[in-house]
Target: FAD-dependent pyridine nucleotide-disulfide oxidoreductase
Amino acid sequence: MAITNFRLTTGQYEENFADIHPPFENLTAALVEANRCIFCYDAPCMKSCPTSIDVPKFIKQIATENIKGSAHTIFSSNIMGGGCSKVCPVEKLCEGACVYNLMEEEPIQIARLQRFSTEKAIQEKWPLFTRKPSNGKRVAVIGAGPAGLSCAHVLSREGIDVTIYEKEAKGGGLMTYGIAAYKVTDQFCEDEVNYVLSLGGIEIKYNQELGRDIHLADLQNQYDAVYIGIGVGLARQLGIPGEELEGVVDAISFIYDIRSKDFSEVRVGENVAVIGMGMTAIDAATQAKRLGAKQVTMVYRRTQAEMPCTQVELDIAKLDGCNIIWLAAPQQIIGEDGKVTQLVCSNMVLGEPDASGRRSPVETGETTILDVDMVIKAAGQMPFEALVSGINLQNQYGKIVTAANGVTSIAGVFAGGDCVNGGREVVDAVQAGKDGAAGILNFLSVS
Model:
């Protein structure tokens, strides 16, 4: 067993990382699906969308072949509506709320319809918004992820000049660096960021990291307000023996490498264990398999009933051939010559519910041993506690504390997204950006 790259041919990589959710092939196909919608009054699909996209309206616009109007409806609520149509867990949001589910019929394919309109708008570079004349106000946004881009777009539409400071070489944040490559391509992420910037009044300065290249106090002096949307990105450690061995990596770094390098350059083991059962764990496991790992085993300390990922995501992992061991918690990683050889797991049973409401896993005293050459840790992400504490923002274990509309403990400084909530969906970050923009507009007395 060995960790190596170039496990597959170029053609195999292209096939394995092709778009997992193909779009409608043409307008006719989109029209057929759009005309299934019954355009509910007080639509539950709209209520279940964190950004409150008027779903019946944009679908009706597609049905009447008003594609440009449909895209405007979507982007008015969610400027990242194109990306969200690819990565949102719609089975527990809009499509999960569709009334067709109550009729035991397939729900409207809302995500594919949303993708149809937004992709066309992005590809055709439709100028759907007009920016108000510059009013002389300047705002700094830290982070070019969904929260930061959403905030910047709302502010710029109101005539505010926005400068975004981004620590990476590309914008998009989680969309670009943290989601499975078969869900959303690098090219689409770049096109989506460029579409947001096409409004005007927004500049992104790349390779600018908070605490290293830029400092909050300096930005406060230079700008009328500051919005922080730095997300989360520190992998939670397991705290078990052997975690330092070669071959033990965290899922965040693993997925980052896949998104920032050519697929052939990313090293993967032959027998891989993935610890965790969240969306990040699924993305890590499926991509390890698609990179050429012969066997991928997911290890989760609870049962399927308690898993944080959706059934749709779990099905992707199963279809990719990933094995799953329920009720197993990592106890020790064993190595030879400094490299991983085995993962020892404690067999668990479920006890009483914990603070999250899920039943707590309890050790049985028995173990399961897996022969592996790579262990991917996907046991959760942590906020940048040291960074946040260093800039004297009120926080709870690194999560920035905010009041309504992103107001923080420092006047003129606002925050939102994963750095506040600890990590939710992309669409939640987009809404947080909108809320922060509303708070900034109020603070600056811009109506």
